Amino acid sequence: MAFRPLCFVLMPFNVKPDPSGGPDIDFDRIYTSAILPGIVDAQLQPIRADEEELGGIIHRAMFERLLVCTYALADLTTSDANVLYELGVRHAARPGTTLTIHATSTPLPFDVNLLRVVPYELGKDNAFSDAEASRLRTSVRDQLDDLRRANDTGGVRDSPLYQLLPNWNPGPLPDHAAESFRSDARKAEKVKVELDQLMALGRDSSRRPAVRDALLAVRARLMDDSTPETALFVKLLMVHRSISDWSGMLEVCEVMPAELERQAPIRQQRAFAYNRRSEAAMAVENDDAASIDRARAVAILVNLQEAQGLTSETAGLLGRIYKSQWLQARRRGRAREARGFLVQALDAYRRGFLADWKDIYPGINTVTLLEALGGPTARSEQARLLPVVRFAAEQRLRAAKADYWDHATLLEVLVLMQEDDAAEESLDAMLAAHPEDWQTTSTADNLRIIEVIRSERGTDTTRLRDLIERLG
After folding, report:
1. What was the pLDDT predicted at 215?
2. 298-337 burial code (b ≥16 CB/10 A, e <16)
3. Which of 57, 440, 56, 53 has the alpha carbon at shortest distance from 239?
4. Contacts of 59 (CB under 8 A, 6+ apart)
5. How far apart are the first and last CA of the chain?
């Protein structure tokens, strides 16, 4: 059976901010509803650079695809740094067959007179309706059809480098190497589909033992592969996380390629897994195991912060560690020790939120822990920050594809602001996002903190308890 030519897709992932100040843009919807079917309509096989699950890690497989895929499509909307970098590599390596597209509502990143950029519309509030999707799908198909005809009848030069420097002509990869890369790409796509299916199965807790066994089999196949694609390790890591398999996450980190394991997003996920496993050990009062894993998590994050400076992600993970210690000390009646951990957690979350006020995770934890701290100073700071966190959450919820944490943050903000009716509506929307168990458990734990603190201060928490019970 003849394979369809490969078309590599360079574009942002998930929901990204609109650089023009409008609502966030859901690039996953743009891909699945327009770009992917448009490529298939053009009789090509799409391959998406979905290694960005953990921040856009550039690796060998990315370069291979940029070099060997016969066609490429780059979406320049939002001027995404990874997309622009990858487009530059593509233009240096291939003289033609690269299609560039761009949403008309956002500014182009540079003078594109030498590029043929195909515009598309996002629609009102960047919602990207079915009508816009249909138009972009047709446009992608027609443009790729034109590229194929031009390429079949003598080639096409759409790279500015090849246009401006006629003597620039790096030699092509040997045929055997190019075909090997193409074969690896097709094989990797099959494994990605398998992992997506396992993640979906893992939503049913009764199937998780079988999912773990299947993940072990996938890992074994990757280890047997002489040149495994690093993106598959990232996806494998995230499937383990989706089923709350913290030890599985750590095992994947141990066997992944060293150049990938050193990346900041992977180190953050490793610290995340150590801390979650530490919390599980604390729940059964295995203090020694909890202490060891917690120390490992802190060491990773402190070293990362020293290497790359303060980020909201790293600060938020540190805050979670101190928050867990605060809760443990509080349960055991160690008031002075508990207050020390509370102050440490609050300081970490606050620094993370100040580093990036659009990152709602450290923001919501800051205002929640201010509630726990109490006192006039804490209440005054909370009153200043609550509207900021609420605004950030509401802006994220305006996106076409708001995620679970956007809904959960707004729910917690509304509880803190004692808007009970609105909180109940927010809970309905949050549960409709089909969260993973560990996510709803995290939200319930946060709400339970507020409930306990308010009960101790004599506040009626009947409606808040009802919300918590609905979370299970």
Report:
1. 95
2. bebbeebbeeeeebbbbbbbbbbbbbbbbbbbbeeeeeee
3. 53
4. 51, 230, 231, 259, 260
5. 51
Rounded to whole angstroms, how far apart are CA atoms 340 and 335?
9
Q: 380: Cβ–Cβ under 8 A, 6 or more apart, which residues?
A: none
Per-residue confidence (pLDDT) for residue 51, from 0 to 100: 47
- Judge whether residue 303 has pLDDT over 90: yes
- What residues form DSSP beta bridges with 71? 7
Task: Say if residue 12's pLDDT is above 50.
Answer: yes
Kindly state the helix (H) or strand (E) to which residue 25 belongs, with its residue range: strand 25-26
User: Which long-range CB contacts under 8 A does 193-201 form with residues at least 24 apart?
Assistant: 194/218, 195/232, 195/235, 195/236, 195/239, 198/239, 199/238, 199/239, 199/242
Beta strand 71-75 with 6-10 is parallel
d(CA 10, CA 25): 16
Backbone angles phi, psi at 415, to 5 degrees: -65, -45
Is a pLDDT exceeding 70 seen at residue 112? no
The pLDDT value given to residue 58? 54
* Segment 334-347 mean pLDDT: 95
Q: Give residue 50's pLDDT.
A: 58
pTM over 0.70? The answer is yes
Cβ atoms 261, 59 nearer than 8 A: no
* Nearest 10 degrees: Cα torsion 250, 254, 256, 260: 80
The pair of structure tokens assigned to 340 is 């020390």
Task: Tell me what pLDDT residue 114 has.
Answer: 65
What count of residues does the chain have? 472
pLDDT at 374: 93
CA neighbor of 119 nearest in space, from 137, 104, 97: 104
Q: Are 363 and 405 in contact (CB under 8 A)?
A: no
